[in-house]
Amino acid sequence: MTTECIIQDIELVRTETSKTLESYESTLNVILDVMNRYKGIFDDLKVRLEKVNSQIGNVTGNDNQVDEIISISKESIGILRRLIGIAKRSRLYSGYKTSLHELSLTVDDFEEHISDFKFRHDTRSQSRINEILSGFSLSL
Predict the structure, then answer these.
(1) DSSP 111
(2) Which residues of 58-84 are buried (b: 16+ CB within 10 A; e: fewer)?
(3) One-character DSSP codes across 12-27
(4) pTM for the complete prediction?
(5) Which residue would you say has higher pLDDT here, 66 or 77?
(6) With CB atoms 3.0 to 4.6 Å apart as the test, which of 5, 47, 56, 114 could cross-link to 73 if both were Cys?
(7) Cα–Cα distance measured from residue 62 to residue 59, given in angstroms and rounded to the nearest whole number
(8) Three-class secondary structure assignment of 40-103
(9) Segment 76-132, tens digit of pLDDT
């Protein structure tokens, strides 16, 4: 093997190594961009849910306040459901399937609690139920 052949082989290895590194770097940049985008979504969700949490304990019966809590909650639930759907389509789904299932159950519970909250603060519905039940009495 001549020195010239060794030099050519070294150049070929150097070129291929550079191409491979550029490819990996490009892929890694795409992954980091996606992670940053989802981190932003989760940061926004955190702020929304903290707002709901702080407001829900101080509800005074104000319809605007109740409507805002319900609106923020429904938007947050929609975002969470979309994120869960995206995660389920991921190649990595099997690695976090259990955690994602727990998150899904938690979102279901949150949605149920918000429905109950909405019903408890819907004065028209409460009045209607009171009208229906006004003629009944429970005796033991």
Answers:
(1) H
(2) eeeeeeeebeebbebbeebeebbeebe
(3) HHHHHHHHHHHHHHHH
(4) 0.68
(5) 77
(6) 114
(7) 7
(8) HHHHHHHHHHHHHHHHHCCCCCCHHHHHHHHHHHHHHHHHHHHHHHHHHCCCCHHHCHHHHHHH
(9) 999 999 999 988 888 777 888 898 899 999 999 999 999 888 888 877 777 777 777
